[in-house]
Amino acid sequence: MSLGKAARSLVKPLRGVLRPSTPALNRSYAAVAEARAVLEGELDGIRAAGTWKAERIITSKQGPQINVDGSQSSILNFCANNYLGLSSHPEVVQAGIDALKTYGAGLSSVRFICGTQDLHKNLERKLAEFHEREDCILYASCFDANAGLFEVLMGPDDAVLSDELNHASIIDGIRLCRAKRLRYKHMDLGDLENKLKESQSSRMRLVVTDGVFSMDGDVAPLTGICDLAERYGAMVFIDECHATGFLGPRGRGTDELLGVMDRVHIVNSTLGKALGGAAGGYTVGPKPLIDLLRQRSRPYLFSNSLPPPVVGCATKAVELLLASSEIAESMTAKTMRFRNKMTQAGFTIAGSAHPICPVMLGDARLASVMADDMLKLGVYVIGFSYPVVPKGKARIRVQISAAHTDKDIDHCVDAFIQTGKKHGVIS
Question: What top-tier enzyme class does this entry carry (predicted)?
Fold first, then answer.
């Protein structure tokens, strides 16, 4: 037998082994086609319901005025979480540049291996000082902070009592723990007390609530929650993502606003909103808890350290707030200017005196179309609908920033009035 024939005789059976049979290939293609059809059906349903969430492309830095792809001039931005206008504050930006030059782009490591720099520890100290708590631990996001807390703190002999409208990250974090889970009606102290009575046999109990509920801008009744927690021997946790930096006399948050800083035991919050707006989250609370989170919290142990530029920006933002509460103090008047003018025009604004000002519309398609019309009038807002908010409660969520001027706010109100009349929302 020639060498060529011998080689071909060896290759032929190998091809049969390495190449899937035609029926196997057909089944594989059929499975992909079936999955694609299912996914396309889901997407078509979203479009038909008017709840499709398109992503507009911003071509400038974040701020009260931005450039949007397709628009000929700058647009007023009224839907960012940039509450204090620090995302593009020159000192915050410079701090990020300095950290990049000194510490590099990133650590390529988790914290406990070789991912902790002195700037991480410095930010943790400053955040603990800001919130007047014993210690602090940083995470890649507040979603991670919520995902990493409850599993470590609460065991099968414990109970978690959670407001039914808590943020999705809180709900997902609680699902990861083995504690008994009880939901109480939204901000309903009577129902919370019933759940506390129901769970009295538990070893530890933790009442869990957003400080401010992001979709409606309503503030949790922390005074009553703390009263009940103390009466029934429970701890209190709050998520302060939409409060840190601007609520309370010094911007410390909902617990300061309501005078219960010494009665709330654990606080989670974010660096990605008022505190520079880049990324990152954290937990502040008792030192033994923070120490245990460093040992067992999975999002902390298995996620890379926050990049130095992000840490540098956040540190400068916290330093600015520790030095002065002037920026935070400007929020109230601007918030009430918008709320009062919109109410006088005939719109329904949910929540209370919070910079989150939901313009309630009900219909998902209406919210989306009105938001598009607002963009044409030079105002960037987004319609919120199911599943972000309950069905039938679609709205345009407006967010006021300390960086907005009175002229900016009045322009936004005028655009709403024009658009609202066009669509029959107001007369």
Answer: transferase
Output the furthest CA–CA distance in the chain (Å, rounded): 97
At 19 the pLDDT is 56
Cβ neighbour number for residue 287 with a 10 Å cutoff: 12
Structure tokens at 327: 């920026």
> Which pLDDT score is estimated for 25?
73
The catalytic residue among 120, 167, 265, 273 is 273
* Inter-residue contact 253 to 274 (CB < 8 Å): no
Find the catalytic residue in 214, 269, 297, 368. 214
Of 69, 96, 65, 98, the closest CA to residue 82 belongs to: 65
- Look up residue 131 and give its amino acid: H
**CA 315/CA 146 separation, integer angstroms:** 21
Is 61 labeled as catalytic in the residue annotation? no
Summarize pLDDT for 394-406 with one digit per residue, the tens.
999 999 999 999 9
Cα of 45 vs its chain's centroid, Å: 26
Q: Verify whether residue 214 is a known catalytic residue.
A: yes
SS (H, E, C) the chain: CCHHHHHHHHHHHHHHHHCCCHHHHHHHHHHHHHHHHHHHHHHHHHHHCCCCCCCCCECCCCCCEECECCCCCCEEECCCCCCCCCCCCHHHHHHHHHHHHHHCCCCCCEHHHHCCCHHHHHHHHHHHHHHCCCEEEEECCHHHHHHHHHHHHCCCCCEEEEECCCCHHHHHHHHCCCCEEEEECCCCHHHHHHHHHHCCCCCCEEEEEECEECCCCEECCHHHHHHHHHHHCCEEEEECCCCCCCCCCCCCCHHHHCCCCCCCCEEEEECCCCCCCCCCEEEEECHHHHHHHHHHCHHHHCCECCCHHHHHHHHHHHHHHHHCCHHHHCHHHHHHHHHHHHHHHCCCECCCCCCEEEEEEECHHHHHHHHHHHHHCCEECCEECCCCCCCCCEEEEEECCCCCCHHHHHHHHHHHHHHHHHCCCCC
User: Exposed, middle or buried: residue 348 (CB in 10 Å: 0-12, 13-18, 19+)?
Assistant: middle
What is d(CA 127, CA 238) in angstroms, rounded to the nearest whole number?
15
Residue range 129-167, pLDDT digits in tens: 999 999 999 999 999 999 999 999 999 999 999 999 999
- What is the per-residue burial (b if ≥16 Cβ within 10 Å, else e) of 88-103? bbeebbebbeebbeeb
* pTM for the model: 0.89
